[in-house]
Amino acid sequence: MERKFINVILLGFGFMFVFTAFQTMGNIEKTILDSIKQDDPSFTGDGYTSLAIIYATLAICNWMAPSVITITGPRGAMLIGAVTYLFFIVTFLFPRTWLLYLASVMIGAGAAAIWTGQGNYLTLNSDGETISRNSGVFWAMLQCSLFFGNLFVFIKFQGKSHIDLHTRNVVFGVLTGVCALGIVFLMLLRPTRRNIDDVKNEMTMKEEGPMEAFRGAIRLFCTGDMMLLSAAFIYTGVELSFFSGVYSPSIGFTLAMGENAKQLVGLSGVFIGLGEVLGGALFGILGSKTTRWGRDPIVIMGYLIHMTSFFLIFINLPNLAPFGDTTDTSYITPSPYLAMLCSFLLGFGDACYNTQIYSILGGKYADNSTSAFALFKFTQSLAAAACFFYSSRAPLSVQLGVLAVLGTAGTAAFCRVEWAARSVARAAARAALAPLAPGEKPASRDVEDALHYD
């Protein structure tokens, strides 16, 4: 196995364990904090507010992330970020309202570092032929975190309508250990063996310094393609906050689901994870073929899957489900089986979008990947923060309507950028082939692939 692919695997394991801890916490945070409030009336922390603070801080700090990378490098940035995730989870063992919100700010700053470092490190270990494969493999490994963590929660919450202190502490203790294991894997990441172009790019970045990296990120953000892609980034942020912090608790709050409604919160996360892993693995295995024929078919497939899931959620869950326990019903009797199907569809559709966004950023902006991924996480996180702020006030039908509108706009914008890139690639390929004698084959496989791009 080549050295760079081993680095991608180690990166995947590191993120899988760190985010097994964090994504599980995000999925159950609203449910857990409601139980803490029942045991301790002095605790007033809110799950939606905590998640909103995390993503708002992440959005702001992403502007500084490229500057941090010039000082720490991608591996250092990821380690610093991972430690803040560990701190966030540990604070749940000592529930204090002020500590919850302080930890939310810290993890938001750490998330900017870990995700920008991840994007840069993944790009350094990929090239035009391997970026789709590596993005798919990384995404599949990362989303295993949803499967394993929530399966554990599903078992621990079995038969419980109230999450007691002992159960909470067992869950928090296990997730703390899992996060620490992820940090160990990130410490094992090795420096990338770079070619001459990579070395030149890194030397240029160091010469420019943190301020120039910041200004470069602003210039990149103002380009036409990045502005269009931002529409897709915004949608992924809103749907991320919906399936990771709103949808699963809404299932648990729907008492018509039966006595095990709270248990379904963890099971929903498992099915979201299954969809994410299947999507990431599928597009990783077929990465070379999907890149050759374009990224837009996969994104359009994700769009159709998500629209289907939004409709099914609308008819299955009551309008007041995001706010707390309710005995209301929607257009049909709430079905746990339909709810789990929607969880799977949400995960698979999310994988469609994110694997192709990683692919287009790693390919189109390979020489400026730090700024490109920082801008992606900035836009995505700002949208996620906004969604969490209105999630505590907007009924389910309004949230689904917002998702449908943003999904349509984001998909159209992504396809516009992809089609423009395809036209440029074909034009370049034809120009390269023009001088060839009849019957002569192009010297580069890339030229042939460009001609078959659509």
TrEMBL record:
CDD domains from the UniProt entry: MFS_MFSD11
Subcellular location field: Membrane
GO cellular component, as recorded: membrane
Location (main, coarse): membrane
Classification via Pfam families: UNC-93
Key words, A-Z: Glycoprotein, Membrane, Transmembrane, Transmembrane helix
Membrane-protein topology: Multi-pass membrane protein
InterPro entries: Ion_channel_UNC-93, MFS_trans_sf, UNC-93-like_regulator
Membership in a protein family: Belongs to the unc-93 family.
Record PANTHER family: ET TRANSLATION PRODUCT-RELATED (PTHR23294), UNC93-LIKE PROTEIN MFSD11 (PTHR23294:SF0)
Name of the protein in question: UNC93-like protein MFSD11
